Amino acid sequence: MTSGETVKPPSVTIEFLANELANELSSGSKEEHPAPSQEEEVKQDGGLQGWLQVFACWLLFINTWGLTNSFSIFETHYKRQFRTISHSNIAWIGSLQLFLTLFIGVFAARYLDGGHVRAVVVTGILFQVAGMLLTSFSNRFWQFVLVQGVCVGVGSGTLAFTSAAIIPFYFTKRRMLAAGVVSTGSSVAGVVYPLMMRELFQKVGFGWAVRILSLVMLATPSVSLVVLKPQYTIKQKKNGPLFNAAFLRDTPYTLFIISYAFMVAGVYVPYFFIQSYALELNITENTTFNIVAIMNAATFFGRFPYNYLADMFGGIAILVPCCFATAIILFLWRFVHTLSGLIVISATFCFVTGGLVSLPAATIANLTQDKSEYRTRMGMGYTVAAIGALVGNPIAGAARHGGSTDVMERWQGAWFVAGACLVLATGFMCWARVLRGGLNFKIRLLRSCGVVLNVM
């Protein structure tokens, strides 16, 4: 350009200005009102649909963990029927059921990810009801192992995993509270089933009592089929591996699921043996059913405070003191020898352990960055925990010293094994917490939102 030339401004037409204005308004609108992301669509934290899912999962919890919480009434009956079989061997029935309740989750996860939630629930109901009906006609020990331990366990596994997997997709900030409400289903079943079965045992016998229980187990989860509406806004990885070894490189996650295994190994020991222990203390049989009901009633009141606090401080921060306190209670159980003492320690134990059933699944969700990985991670966590569920109660039963004439000394090995498992669970959980959030326990871990939050 030479010095004598002038710059001609670009021509501006009305059409040009109109187009620019339209583009600007369009851009501003997108910035002020962005389209909801997949993550935002999932974060409902309530509403009619969200709480209906809580109700549906609550019904599923009744006949999964609630059945496990009531196993002592079956253990006592089987010990009376098979007097030559040890408590340790009888415990394999309930331990197989508990093992499969956790282990089957890794397989149920794949079908849930494919959108087959109702097929999964129907399968679980059929296995559970068929298993309990066959239990009512069984009369040999190996038959009970197969039908109640394996068949009912497979059904419980599909239903339990479904009830735990749905809630995190409807709740984020109040996830722990919602999980706590769901978990009260096991407490309600643990109160109702022992009292119901006590009356039925006396009036119609074991066989018809279990058949009536089967009808209840058919009716309650069937309602969930109408209510359940899983959230599939987030696309799941189809045909992914059942087990992803890469997840184990997440050290806090790995330590947590190891801790979960030790926790499950020890925490169900009183639920399996409390009635037998009470009978050996010369407490009447009718009263022992009441003790089981009182235990489970205490878990109901123990669900809400821990889950409410977990929403504020994080799941691991609440689980650590609960696990340690549970270990102390189990060690003290050796000194209990009266009805009043047994009621007090049983109720205290179940109140303290109120969060140990509901918090692990939601804690795994908080340790998961990518929600598409959640069900696989939870399935892996349940599978590892299942190992503890399988061996914990039989080992505790074997630790019972049958040769002693003193009841407290006879059972002290069982309580000490359970207490040691909870001590190990506490240690691994503390390790996971320190690796994730450091020594500052005022930090709440919430990886599912991609951040670590300071709640103080």
Automatic annotation (TrEMBL):
<feature type="transmembrane region" description="Helical">
    <location>
        <begin position="117"/>
        <end position="137"/>
    </location>
</feature>
<feature type="transmembrane region" description="Helical">
    <location>
        <begin position="144"/>
        <end position="171"/>
    </location>
</feature>
<feature type="transmembrane region" description="Helical">
    <location>
        <begin position="313"/>
        <end position="336"/>
    </location>
</feature>
<dbReference type="InterPro" id="IPR050327">
    <property type="entry name" value="Proton-linked_MCT"/>
</dbReference>
<feature type="transmembrane region" description="Helical">
    <location>
        <begin position="89"/>
        <end position="111"/>
    </location>
</feature>
<dbReference type="InterPro" id="IPR036259">
    <property type="entry name" value="MFS_trans_sf"/>
</dbReference>
<dbReference type="InterPro" id="IPR011701">
    <property type="entry name" value="MFS"/>
</dbReference>
<feature type="transmembrane region" description="Helical">
    <location>
        <begin position="253"/>
        <end position="274"/>
    </location>
</feature>
<feature type="transmembrane region" description="Helical">
    <location>
        <begin position="208"/>
        <end position="228"/>
    </location>
</feature>
<dbReference type="Pfam" id="PF07690">
    <property type="entry name" value="MFS_1"/>
</dbReference>
<dbReference type="GO" id="GO:0022857">
    <property type="term" value="F:transmembrane transporter activity"/>
</dbReference>
<keyword id="KW-1133">Transmembrane helix</keyword>
<protein>
    <submittedName>
        <fullName>Major facilitator superfamily transporter</fullName>
    </submittedName>
</protein>
<dbReference type="GO" id="GO:0016020">
    <property type="term" value="C:membrane"/>
</dbReference>
<feature type="transmembrane region" description="Helical">
    <location>
        <begin position="379"/>
        <end position="399"/>
    </location>
</feature>
<keyword id="KW-0812">Transmembrane</keyword>
<keyword id="KW-0472">Membrane</keyword>
<feature type="transmembrane region" description="Helical">
    <location>
        <begin position="414"/>
        <end position="435"/>
    </location>
</feature>
<comment type="similarity">
    <text>Belongs to the major facilitator superfamily. Monocarboxylate porter (TC 2.A.1.13) family.</text>
</comment>
<feature type="transmembrane region" description="Helical">
    <location>
        <begin position="50"/>
        <end position="68"/>
    </location>
</feature>
<feature type="transmembrane region" description="Helical">
    <location>
        <begin position="342"/>
        <end position="367"/>
    </location>
</feature>
